[in-house]
Amino acid sequence: MTYDLQNDEENLEIFKSLADELDNLSDFVDWDEDDDEDVLAEKCEHLEERQVELESQISQVLQQLSFTKMQIHTDERRKALEQYLDRFTKKTTQPPSEEFEVRTRADVFYPHRMRFLPVHALQMAQWYSANNKLDHAVAVYEFVHGLFEKGTPDIWLRREQYLPQMISTYAALEDIARLVELETLARDAADAGALSVDIGRMADSAVAKIVGLHPEKKLKPEFIKRLSIGYEDLQNELENANFEIARLRVGVLLQEEHQKAREWLLQHHGDIRLTDNSEHYLTDAVMCWGSRGLQERFCMWIPILVGKAVESQFNDRVWKGIRQRLGSILPDRFKHELSINRIKELLSGTGSSWGKMEYQVMKTAIQKQMEHDNLFDRLHLDKLKVISADSTRARHGQAGGERYTRLDLDRFIKAIELDKETGWIFTFLSLLR
């Protein structure tokens, strides 16, 4: 194919400028904690209008690229975008020196005149996926993956930002060979604690579905073994789905222990004003921890119960008001109660599900409603991270079927101080008023 390099370079520069503005859209708005609902709604509406404009302009530019018009074959996906960008390789005679250390290091990863960064590539991949150009989309994800594997100097780039979309796109293409490779990568990263096990499960599910539709596609024995391990993990998850029923049964069977725990909470923390559900969850957690026999029998329940207590208190005392105030301004995925993982992401501003604009809107609304910003203190964010991680591990287990242990529980209790009258968990719940 013949490339129109001059027009392509101009269009790539335009695309990069539009993508940068879209990625930093909320930075162009002067957010103020004193904004009332009407002002906040007006600012959000302005941002949404500008977002639609930018996405339309990006679409027009990408449609004109030679890369968009070219045909990409299966064996070309991994190098297609890199080879295309190499046509714009930058010529430089600047010798390496200490003064230009950062610049020259970046040049190793982005040796192109337009300096095509991961943030640009990810937006390009999303556009290709939305427009059903899946070969182009995976080619772009492969470019980003290559940068990550080489150690890109963009410290913000994480696997979570591209790997799930990369897996789902390869699944749509039914490329089982590449999916198996990505599953292995995801599993190894998860075992090392560098990636959520859910991403590995996502690849497992995609492979299993393709094999189910196409029995002629054969799998290697070692991958079948990994699928079996994934099946065991899902069995653990199914077992944990019965948690709520079993918790209620224990509360009935152990009425005396339950009453002692409830009286202890009322005596020492009766002023917290817990919701009914939060009180029940916290009472059960205190009850299980207060009895040596229950500690051993219901080891994994305690972090789950604590996570449920925080969820109930936050959703009722904080999030319910935010949802009522912002109403239609909230994106659909925020119009429901939040899990402990989402609460942690919301307060810390992390996680791929939260955009910059959304996070700033939520943070401002929470600060106004609570009349303080203590929820965003680093100590609280670190402790919430512990609850999120332990409750997830206790509920879903770990790769290979390893269950939550008593040693894990001891570390968890030490972190959140459930065993102390003035422990952190009680202080935090008192802030959710």
DSSP summary, beta strand count: 0
Q: Main sheet, how many strands, which sense, barrel?
A: none
* Computed CA radius of gyration, to the nearest angstrom: 25 Å
Strand content: under 5%
What is the H-and-E element order?
HHHHHHHHHHHHHHHHHHHHH
Which word captures the global form?
A: globular
Backbone structural class: mainly alpha
Q: Distance between termini?
A: 64 Å
Q: Quickly count the domains.
A: 2
Q: Please work out how many helical segments DSSP would assign.
A: 21
Please bin the fraction of helical residues.
55-70%
The low-confidence runs, each spanning 5 or more residues with pLDDT under 50, are: 91-106
Mean pLDDT figure: 77
Q: Oligomerization state of this entry? A: single chain
Could you walk me through the main structural features you see in this protein, from its secondary elements to its overall organization?
The protein has about 425 residues and is mainly α. The chain folds into two domains: about 5-155, no CATH class; about 245-430, no CATH class. Helix content is about 70%, strand content about 0%. The protein has 21 helices and no strands. Helix 14 runs antiparallel to helix 16 (about 300-325). The protein is globular. The termini are far apart. Residues about 90-105 have low confidence and may be disordered.
